[in-house]
Design brief:
single chain; mainly alpha
C-alpha cells in the first residue's frame, strides 16, 4: 500500500497540472497567485490529501497496533528521524530514509538477539537486542548528519 501511495503521489506531483501548481506554489506563492491560481484553495486541497493519507495510515495500522490515545507518538518520532535522514523537504529522501530506518530496525530486531545469544542467556539477549535495535536508528541518523548535514537528498529551491 505504501509503495502504491508513493507512486500515485509521484505521478500526481510530477505529471499533472495540479502537481505543477503545487510545486510552483510551494516555492513562489505570490507569483503563482498573480497568475490566477487560488493558492489558498490549492493548499487546502493539499492539506486534505494529507489528512486522507493520515486516515489511510490509521486504517492500516489500527488492526496491527493497539488503538489508544497517544498511539502515534512513537510513529511521530520515527517520522522525524526519517525526514532528517532523507533531507527536509525531499520526497525522494523521505522514501529512502523510511526504507533505511525500516531495514535497520527490522534487521536489528531479527538478527541482534541471535548474535547476542552466543554471549548472553536468551532472555537477556532478546531484551538487549531490541534495545540496541532502537538505538541503531538514532545512530544511523547521527551518522547521516555527520556525513551529510542536510540529509541524503537536499530539497530544491532552498
Amino acid at each position: 500500500v505504501g509503495l502504491a501511495v508513493a507512486l500515485l503521489l509521484r505521478q500526481l506531483i510530477l505529471k499533472t497540472r495540479i502537481g505543477m501548481q503545487i510545486r510552483a506554489g510551494a516555492t513562489h506563492r505570490e507569483i503563482v497567485g498573480a497568475l490566477g491560481v487560488d493558492v489558498d484553495r490549492l493548499f487546502t486541497f493539499v492539506f486534505g490529501i494529507g489528512a486522507m493519507l493520515a486516515g489511510l495510515a490509521g486504517a492500516i495500522a489500527g488492526p496491527l497496533l493497539a488503538v489508544q490515545v497517544g498511539m502515534g507518538e512513537h510513529i511521530l518520532i520515527l517520522t522525524f528521524v526519517v525526514i532528517i535522514i532523507g533531507g527536509i523537504g525531499s520526497v525522494r529522501g523521505a522514501l529512502v530514509g523510511a526504507v533505511l530506518v525500516g531495514l535497520v530496525d527490522t534487521y536489528g530486531r531479527a538478527f541482534l538477539p541471535l548474535l547476542l545469544r552466543s554471549v548472553a542467556e536468551p532472555a537477556s539477549a532478546d531484551m538487549i537486542g531490541a534495545s540496541i535495535s532502537n538505538i541503531a536508528i538514532y545512530v544511523l541518523m547521527a551518522a547521516v548528519l555527520v556525513l551529510r548535514p542536510r540529509g541524503l537528498f537536499q530539497a530544491y529551491g532552498g
